[in-house]
Design goal:
345 residues, alpha/beta, Rossmann fold, 2 domains, 44% helix
Length: 345
Amino acid sequence: MYNKDSKIAVVGAGAIGGITAGFIARAGYNNVEIVCKHQEIADKFRSGEVHIFGINGDHRVTVPAVARISELKEHKDIVFLATKATDMLEAARELLPFLTDRSIVVSLQNGICEDAIAEVVGRHRTLGCVVGWGATMHGPGELEMTSAGEYIIGNIDSKPDIRLLSLEKILSSVVPVEMSENIMGNLYSKLIINSCINSLGAICGLYLGKMLSTKKYRSIFIEIIREAIAVADERYLKVEIYAGKLDYYRFLHGSGFYDNFRRHLLIRMIGFKYRRIKSSSLQSLERGNPTEIDFLNGYISFHGKKQKVPTPVNDKIIEIVKEIEAGTKEISPENFGDPFFEDFR
């Protein structure tokens, strides 16, 4: 359905968007454009000065680039939306003049943005995607691929969709691609872990290893998961195993001493393995930017209210992050001294 001459746009030139655009262009797709927001970065993409390095090798890439969506040249067959979730709706609206009935829009964001995107561009145009690999932007045009992984793609209504075959071929230029019959369950799976790691890190300001070495933080981590799964159950949403390893249902099974010890041990091991990870939401706050909390814990809380499932821990996490964004609270471990968390020991 789509081929090497298909008209492709990547909106967002951060680490994920920039690497995605660079590798697709290197694979011989002839009509790729990237929207960079900043003219300096657009100039680097156009001039071949963008440096992609890390686990997939060392490359210099050239991609036609513009600074604004309005500067795109023509209608697009495929749009990969890789902005921050906070900029996503504005970008989706600006894309409308460049979409046809055959166009597809694929979210590469953290959190679950597909429902919101579909409200703007239409469900028939919206396909789901989980980004299961990691990357970091070290500066303008310096993009490191930091961890291996895959894309997982699927129809957001769990319907057969021939367009996924073409999308799989295109994205496999970057990393391996899996197709899912339950993409919303895959997206929710990643959302849960991000709602724990990103949001707790944003509140306390600690690296993952230090944070998860503390029992109180691990207990809060467990309750975020417990609430998220309760909401999913009420929505009849099957949550897929995260990264092929973390089965949330098995993780939450049992209420005895050994079961709780097992949960804490697993989280402690995750913290040790990824001890140098710094929350992306924390990094956003340190740059003076808003976080993506509304599309992480906010998604759990929103659907909890719709389904009449209490989500007090997620609600409190959202409240504190919003206060930090507003400047009425500082980033500090002392935030977890709030009386709300008194029973988390």
